[in-house]
Amino acid sequence: MSRITRDIAAFVGSGGTHRAAGLRGLASGFARKLRRHPIPVLAHFRHSLVLTYALPRELLEPLLPPGLVLDTHGEFGFVAIAMVQAEGLRPAFLPRFLGQNFFLTGYRIFARYRTRGGRWLRGLRILRSDTDRRLMVIAGNLLTHYNYRRVKAAVREKNSQIEIDVSTADGAADVHVAADLGNRPGAPPECSPFANWHEARLFAGPLPFTFDYEPETQSLVLIEGVRRKWNPQPVAVEVSRCSFFDREPFIRAEPILANAFHVANIDYRWNRGVVEAVDPSADSRFRTALA
Fold first, then answer.
1. Which of 7, 50, 109, 234 has the fewest CB atoms found within 10 Å of its own CB?
2. CA–CA separation, 249 and 290 (whole Å)
3. How many other β-carbons are positioned within 10 Å of the β-carbon of residue 128?
4. Range in 19-23, 71-75, 169-173 with the lowest mean pLDDT
5. Other beta carbons within 10 Å of 266
């Protein structure tokens, strides 16, 4: 093979490599944009039971990405565990009978974000999401940042009692809780940092916004939830299992059950995700926390 032939072959090969890399980049960019919650979604909440746990603020702050600040009460930050029995979930343009019924457990940190326009938003930063439906895992991870995992879940209702049992394959997010929906406690749980239900209600999830971070573009994805007649009620609960906190960094402190709220038969809508670039200069702590 002559030198000229070798040079041509090298040029063609290099071009093929660049074209392949370009195609991979386009595919990656398309997949990233697809996960920004591009389609409004509707669902009906048959039950939504949310447990809020208080943890030291210095333990939770490193788990927040750039752009978010911890939503605090005194020296505490908060993690919500939302257990939702959803019905008729579907894109907003489809009729309800085409929707899917599923169970969701969501683990979120209460956080705030100041938009580029100067508006402060309250919301929840995604830590983990579990569901009992394989279709929800596939579609949810294709179209959102919720990072769904498949679990086994059972919801048992009897009179005013509701019992929820969630089992994960590796035991990393098992939950067993019983709630007495007919029992409206007069005060937050013992040892709660909240003095009364007025304070506790300010940290009753879900909040209007859900936040997640897109490291490739150093942006936050903001998903707004819209609901009507939202009036969560405090309930008495017995939590016999909650393995999510049995790992770093949560094992460094004792989680305190700060409140428990329940709401039923609510229509819910997730709007299209909005993306805002954030200042990347403060991301070193976040990167260290995720290492």
1. 7
2. 10
3. 17
4. 19-23
5. 18
